[in-house]
Amino acid sequence: MLKHFRIPGRLALKLTELGVSVPDVLRRAGLPRDLFDQVRILVSTGELFALWRAIESVSADPLIGFKLGVETKTERFHPMAIAALSTQNYVAAVEHMARYKKLTAPEEITHTLEGEEFRVGFRWLLSVDDEPQVLTDYCFSWMVTIARHGTGTRLNPIRAEYVHGRANLRAAERSLGCPVLGGAARNLIVFRASDATAPFVTRNAELLDLLAPQFEEQLRQYKEEDSFIELVRSAIQDRLTGQRPSVDSISHVLHMSSRTLQRKLQDSGSSFQRVLDEARHQMARYYLSNSALELNEAAYLLGFEDPNSFGRAFRNWEGMAPRDWRETHRSWKAN
Prior knowledge:
- α5 runs antiparallel to α6 (90-104), α5 (79-85) crosses α10 (205-238) and α11 packs across α12.
- This protein has 16 helices and seven strands.
- It has helices at residues 10-17, 22-29, 45-59, 64-69, 79-85, 90-104, 133-151, 169-176, 193-196, 205-238, 247-253, 258-267, 272-290, 295-301, 307-318, 322-334; strands at 5-6, 42-43, 107-114, 117-124, 159-161, 180-181, 188-192.
- The protein has a five-stranded mixed beta sheet.
- Keywords: DNA-binding, Transcription, Transcription regulation.
- InterPro entries: AraC-type_N, Homeodomain-like_sf, HTH_AraC.
């Protein structure tokens, strides 16, 4: 299973169009300032959730997730979405997206056609915490966008189900065009089976046949690239024992030159410093949530010179001090 999400470049464009500062979002999320300048924008599940929490915070618009999920310009669609629209109906489109989604990211698109309903949901396979509600809003809105483009109508879902209750309920219902319910077992958006099986006006079998081989090749490349990044991250974490592993030491362990290691990371859309930060971030979350380690002990094990350096790095990652994060996480678990 892959460990990273690929963020669509159009997200930065949409944020700017909606008046949301991309630099502020990246700073609040603790992500690299040049994230959207990278060839392949890859983030972990924790980074993805941090990005969406930052979007919600910086925007201060309770409907920002819904707005980001609406796209009227087909030229901005990812080729995978265009391929989905080239299938015969909405059920087939969701099946197509689900196949490629679970092979390119640690996420599953679930779908069930039963009786008069077609239910669509999302599973974040490597999540520690619940996904941000704003991300669920975005996913639901995007699924409605695909359904409306495919059918060529203002198709509305039957309902949207959220695990947690939400504020701005009526505004959310207007955004999705359906009732919104809280207290559900899972986050789901539900369509009429008759709508989901209605023929797509965008169906294009020739285009789908043309794009399919490219997707299969991309899937192969994604798995290879992500596997290499994971290999480097694991090597770093194995050596995070009171010291900061260097690019030379890791390249030696992986039996390659430091230049080759850095080139392969760059080709995968990453860098040694970024993978090192990701490795430290993951281990920091583990130490703070699953052990009784003191903060200075955690700082030492992660290779920081002192607790203050660890504190500054952790604030960049999570937007709060390590001690505050630990207390917040413990309260979540208690509830």
